[in-house]
Automatic annotation (TrEMBL):
SUPFAM superfamilies xref list: Bacterial luciferase-like (SSF51679)
Domain Luciferase-like: 11-333
Name of the protein in question: Dimethyl sulfone monooxygenase SfnG
Organism of origin: Gordonia asplenii
Gene coding for it: sfnG
A Pfam family that the UniProt record links to this protein: Bac_luciferase
């Protein structure tokens, strides 16, 4: 089995802990903090340890172990101004943002950061955040139709003048944004990310986004989504990159890593996990195909609220590096990592895991060149 496009080097992102409670809903110790000083230092550590991107979370209402949270776009800009190379992705909700207003904010953030601002369009799973603010709660596929228009409007405003757009959710009339974001051959406008698992999410990602984010998945789950997203993209003469969520537990021995996972689950905050499950599984099950996010997630999966354990980046540096390499061979372009103790574990990852990943990639390139297939024609041995 082969895949047409394999990245020469996989990239890495991390979840910004701008929301309290860490990345697992558990009472296990998590040496992390949602405050700015911690996150400023963490962003600097990440960019010096091989991370290309950071994703600022979005949560508006205190809930499910996330009692406190900093707003994502403003926090992203603060991190951009505290770093030199890191690209920061701000998660936003259509329905709570007007796309032209976000386009203006994004253009300013992009210019101030030298072209490092990006957006992750989140269609929404938390009904209360909409209804408590007096906003309508749309059915699943309608939320994704709105997101599709949101993505289109953002791109048009960032790249065109005198924009007209007449959709079911957004109407733009003769609108010109100046200054526009930075435009370079390497990156013509701020990158747009779309996440999800459902068929509607895959359709949006293929048609409108630069990147598609998936919840945690095993090899077969990743391959299924990649085929769908890239088939949709190519039908519209586009290419889309693929990012995969994974909770990373890298330890000197596999036993240490597995014991850590076991402790996380044993100490799960059951009321918080069950409250989250009740909120999100109606979103996943509301699709006709039952393929929405969290539709088949177990209690243990939801302790890491984006199914990060499923990716199985748990073990020694060698085991994790090989698994990352296998995901890359299947077409994954980026790993979005969560950690228990962010500061020290990102340092450990940069020192112990990342060099092994790069060694495997170099060996793959040499093998491909010897076989005459080129770096994008790698036989999948997983």
């Amino acid at each position: 089995m082969t895949t047409e496009r394999v990245a020469e080097e996989i990239e890495f992102a991390y979840w910004v802990p701008n929301v309290s409670g860490g990345l697992v809903t558990s009472d296990i110790e998590q040496r992390t903090s949602w405050d700015y000083e911690y996150n400023k230092k963490l962003a600097q550590t990440a960019e010096n340890n091989g991370f290309t991107y950071a994703l600022s979370q979005v949560r508006y209402e205190a809930s499910y172990g996330a009692e406190f949270q900093h707003e994502s776009t403003s926090f992203s800009l603060a991190l951009l101004l505290a770093t030199e190379r890191l690209k920061v992705i701000a998660a936003v909700h259509p329905g709570l943002w007007q796309p032209a207003v976000l386009a203006k904010l994004g253009a300013t953030a992009d210019i101030l950061s030298g072209g490092r601002f990006a957006v992750n369009v989140v269609s929404g799973w938390f009904k209360d955040e909409f209804t408590h603010l007096g906003e309508p709660w749309l059915e699943h596929d309608e939320r994704y139709r709105r997101s599709a228009e949101f993505l289109q409007v953002l791109r048009k405003i960032w790249t065109e003048d005198d924009v007209d757009f007449r959709g079911d959710f957004y109407r733009i009339h003769d609108f010109t944004l100046k200054p526009k974001p930075l435009n370079t051959p390497q990156r013509p406008n701020p990158e747009l990310f779309q996440g999800g698992n459902s068929l509607a999410a895959r359709r949006n990602g293929g048609r409108h986004a630069d990147w598609y984010f998936s919840n945690g998945k095993d090899y077969d789950g990743v391959t299924e989504q990649l085929v769908d997203v890239r088939t949709e993209a190519r039908a519209h003469k586009r290419e889309v990159k693929f990012g995969l969520n994974g909770f990373i537990i890298a330890r000197d021995t596999e036993k240490e890593a597995r014991d850590t996972l076991r402790e996380i689950i044993e100490k799960a905050n059951r009321p918080a996990v069950e409250g989250f499950r009740d909120a999100v599984q109606q979103a996943g099950n509301s699709t006709s195909s039952k393929q929405g996010m969290w539709a088949d997630s177990t209690f243990e999966d939801l302790v890491q609220y984006n199914d990060g354990f499923r990716t199985q980046l748990i073990g020694t540096p060698e085991q994790i590096a090989e698994r990352i390499a296998n995901y890359r061979r299947r077409g994954v372009d980026l790993i979005l990592g969560g950690f228990l103790h962010f500061q020290e574990e990102i340092e450990y990852f940069g020192e112990k895991v990342l060099p092994l990943v790069r060694e495997i990639e170099a060996a793959d390139r040499e093998q491909a060149e010897r076989s005459g297939g080129g770096s994008n024609q790698i036989l999948l041995g997983v």
